[in-house]
Amino acid sequence: MATTASRRPLLPPGVVDLRGELVGQRADGATVAAIYTAVLLLTPAALIVRGLPLSITPAALIGLGALVLWMCAHLTTTLGAAKGWNVARTALLLFLVSNLVSYGYASAGYLPRDELNLADHAIALVLANLGIGLLVCDGVRGFARLDLVLKVAVVAGALISVIGAIQFLTGFDLTRYMTAPGLRLSYDDVYVLERGSVRRVAATTAHPIEFGVVCAMLLPLGVHYARMAALRGQPRLRWWLCTGLIAVGLMFSVSRSAVLSMVAIGAVLLAGWPRRLRWQALGVLLGFLAFIRVFVPGLLGTFYDLFANFFNDNSVTGRTHDYSTALREIQQHLLLGRGTGTWYVPKYEVFDNQYVQVTIDTGVIGLVIFLGMMVCAVFVALAARRRSSDPQVRDLGLTLAACMVAPIISSATFDFLSFATVAGLMFVLVGAAGSLLRSVRANPCTAAGPRSS
């Protein structure tokens, strides 16, 4: 091992090379990101840190710490932070700039006390999300360390899906007992709702819609690690079990946004998978739906009604009837918005559309940057897939691109960034796309050869 390590003088301590060999392994950015991801998914959304002037969740506190670590690491050349230009990092920083400019524009004039306080809180959350995104992008070095972060996300997603299944099948809410010293409830938590005669559950997230979209974003990662375990000759049953649990959790959320996200994700995956794998995936899907129909009677019928009565659904008309109000507000602050976090419920109307909300908060410029950040993550992941000849890396690139389609779709169906769990997960995935592309560039043995014309 000493001889092997001596052949890699350019790898900083804590980096894992392509074969998964440890090189002076120690706690690094991947360690912090893995802890953040576990805390983000497993801590009930209503719990915040006691004693702070702002309502900060444990995951957001770690995210703010991650931002400090990222800044300190970039001031040195010895802490292992990646240097050089990265498209994903640039997109993340532009998102920060748009929010800071909007915040400065709003606070330069008069703001009611309540709106100014919420603007301060919103900027703190932006910084926390930015911190974890940047840490993953520049602090997760190597394929194995990136795998660690994403595998933790899959396992945590399976665990919260078990909590969601218990809520759905029994009505028992386990999250009421999931607390810890130093934390307190920020609101009366309601994790089990009703849609007609069927329960809707949120697991540890703030709402069933959020839970469903989180499951949709994690499901492709579960499939990826189950398939790659087979290629590596490793046990794969555990990953198929996690994948199945996440799929069940998605169904128990009874969320139209989750289904729309999965349709878009499936389109990306099917476009990139070989024909044989497409047919296998369709067969598994049909088998899963048959399983749900037999063991949870009425659930598929509820999903059918969600779309069959789409234009007569009160939840749909409630999302669109107040767009005239939004348009008037946008016209008053077209470019920079009225200020991040200053439009809030119950003082103002809720639009259940993140694109509308971002435009009101940060203006048209902020909207373009927000959408551009998500689209950028998709193309960065696909660029990593294109540059690599390793089948595992190529599949991970396609998977991350598919995962990032979910927030693009669901931001049109609910106020995405208002929900801490799904928003934090999105920033982890944006950073993961940047980390993957950097790792592909840094490891010539994975790069694809020149294309023939």
Layout of SSEs?
Elements: H1 2-6, E1 15-16, E2 22-23, H2 29-42, E3 47-49, H3 58-74, H4 87-107, H5 113-139, H6 143-170, E4 183-185, E5 192-195, E6 198-201, H7 208-232, H8 237-253, H9 256-272, H10 275-295, H11 299-308, H12 314-320, H13 323-332, H14 354-387, H15 391-410, H16 420-442
Antiparallel strand pairs: 1-2, 3-4, 5-6
Explain what the structure shows.
- The protein has about 450 residues and is mainly α.
- It has one domain (about 25-280, about 325-445).
- Helix content is about 65%, strand content about 5%.
- It contains 16 helices and six strands.
- The strands form three sheets. It has a two-stranded antiparallel ribbon with strand order 1-2. Strands 3-4 form a two-stranded antiparallel ribbon.
- Helix 2 (about 30-40) crosses helix 5 (about 115-140), helix 4 packs antiparallel against helix 16 and helix 7 (about 210-230) packs parallel to helix 16 (about 420-440).
- The longest helix has about 35 residues, at about 355-385.
- The protein is globular and about 60 Å long.
- The chain starts with a helix and ends in an 11-residue tail after the last helix.
